Amino acid sequence: MKFSLKSIGSIVTAISMMTMAVGARADETPDVRLFNKFTTALQGKTIAFVPMSYGMFLTDGWAHVMKEEAARLGMKFVTRDPNWSTTAQSQAVQALIQEKPDVLVIHNLNVQLLARQIRQAQQAGIYVVQLNLVSNQISDAYVGADYRRVGREIAADLVEACSPQKGKSGKISIVQGELTNAASLQELGGAMEIFEKHPEIKIVSNQAGDYDANKSRDITQTALQQNPDLCGVYDFFDVMALGAAQAIKAAGQQGKVLLYTTGGGQRMACDSWDAGMFDRYWDTHTLQQGQDLMTTISLILQSGQKPGAVEMAVYTPVSVWTKENYSRSLCYDLPNQ
């Protein structure tokens, strides 16, 4: 086999370049290589967040963590506030698809609203992460509580606490969230799995409070009037449950009628607990969810997978406050609040 001077020169040049590359890799320690991969994947990337609304502890808490972590990681954080409007949320997501952030984080107002746009975003090369409320359309990741499990746990606790075998009436009132809200649907589904196995428990009221404290108060007030021996109220969200607590107190039943609820562990929850409003509290840990969200985003960006190629879930920890383990240190405050 004969080689021309030109071909030999090309081979020598290629070998030299390979040698230099191998030398560079050899000088790069594993920790440096991992760090470089990490920073290359994240730095300069844009995260866009569209919550249901701002002005509530959950979304303000998540945004606080995302903003701080994005700054630390050299990323850009942008957000839109639909202020509880389905139209505004859909329009905000559509506009962001055109702007093409690297990651789109959505907090679905209902299970169907953004299903089509989730697919559109992924087709446009945008990773989509659903936060705490899942859509009918699965995206690259879901980060949030397992609300079916929460529903099962609360129902099981109420079955035991309100059992006629303990001299209780077995009567329970349920105040759901919004009828097409994912968390509300999942909690109810999980709870009914338990209640349906216990005919001794009577659900005397099961209505949607739409996350409105006034509606929760009215629903609970009626349930108490119609059932003076009501044993417990299961209200799906702590801010809404303040209304149920008011109705129970006004009826002179505080400490007698149980009130179980869920929330993110903000300072208001501790204040309400200290006032005797709640008897059990399932804490979804808002700030920890924010950290878990950012870790998930980091892993997605480092994965090298195309948007839509992977479906994953990160079910975040939930803990239960009781009279035995409660402490004000369980709650959080945000700066300037």
Question: How is this structure best described in words?
Answer:
This protein has 337 residues and is of the alpha/beta class. It has two domains: 39-145 and 288-315, Rossmann fold (3-Layer(aba) Sandwich), CATH 3.40.50.2300; 147-283, Response regulator (Rossmann fold), CATH 3.40.50.2300. Helices cover 47% and strands 17% of the residues. The protein has eleven helices and twelve strands. The chain has helices spanning 5-27, 30-42, 57-72, 86-99, 115-123, 147-161, 182-195, 213-226, 238-250, 267-274, 286-303, and strands at 46-50, 76-79, 103-106, 127-131, 141-144, 171-176, 202-208, 232-235, 258-263, 280-283, 312-315, 319-321. Strands 2-1-3-4-5-11 form a six-stranded parallel beta sheet, with helices on both faces. A six-stranded mixed beta sheet has the order 7-6-8-9-10-12, sandwiched between helices. Helix 9 links the parallel strand 8 (232-235) and strand 9. Helix 3 (57-72) crosses helix 11, helix 6 runs parallel beside helix 7 and helix 8 (213-226) packs parallel to helix 9. Mean pLDDT is 92; it is low at 1-24.
